[in-house]
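User: Structure please.
Assistant: Input sequence and predicted structure:
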Amino acid sequence: MALQASGAISLSDLATEFGDTTPNSMSEFYAGGSLVGTHNASVPASGTISLTDFYSATAAIVLDITSSASEQNILTLATAAGYNAASDTTPIIVNIASGVTVSGSSTHALRTGALNADSDLTINISGSVDGYTGATGGINTSGSPGGDALYWETTTGGSGTYIVNVLSGANLRGGGGGGGGGGSGGVGYSTYDGKEGCIGTLIYGSNGASGSAGGFGSAGSAGSAGGSSVGAAPACVDAAASPQPGAAGGAAGFALRKNGRTVTLNNSGTVAGNAA
C-alpha cells in the first residue's frame, strides 16, 4: 500500500512501508538501495533527503490494467514505471480489472518478460486473460496450436516469489487448438481395359471436411478423411493418390506456461488449459 500523499508522515511510516527494522535512519531510504526501489521518482538516490520526498511512495510497483488490450508484457509496463531489470528487485503487483480482457492474437496474451529473478511478482486477475485460437489446417495439414494465456519468462536463479490469483468470476484460459485439415480425396480412372489397364478420364474423390477449433483450453478436432474415387475396377484406383485420413487438430494453448519457474496458482474463477 502506498504512503500518504500529503500531511504528516514519519520515519516509522517509511519503516512500515519498506520493511525496515529498528533503528531507522533516513540514510537507509535512498532510492536504489536495499529498501526503496528506483520506481519512486520523487525519492533521491543521494544527497538531501526528507520525509516529504516519500509522499505516495510504495514498496512495490503496482501496474493496473484497466482497459482491454492485446499481448501485454509486464517488463515493458514496469520499465515505463521506473523499473530497471538489471538491478531493481522491487516487488511488482499487476492488477487486471474486472471486465477487462487481455488477449493474444499471434503470441502470448500476457507475458512476464525477463524481470529480475529477485523481484516478487503477483498477478491478480479480476477480468480475463485469454490465448488465441489456432488456425485451421489446410488439406492434409494439422491445425495450429492455440496461444498461451500467461507465459512466464523471468530470469532464473533468484529469490523472487511468484503468485497468480484468479479471482471469483475471472478467467485464465489457453486458446483452443485449430481444427485439422480434411484428408485429400483419392484419384482413379473411369475405365479399365484388360489390355491397356486404367484409361479414360480421371475421377477425383472429395476432400474431407476440416475439423472444428477447440474451445478455451481444448485441442481442435481432426479433419475427416477424403473420399474414394470410383473407377471401373479396383485396379483403376491410383495407389499413389489414395484417400488420405484427416489431419490432426492443433493442441490447446497453456493457461499458464511456467517454463520451469515455481509459480503458485490460486484459482477462485475459471482456469482452462494446462498450468505447468
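The chain has a mean pLDDT of 93.
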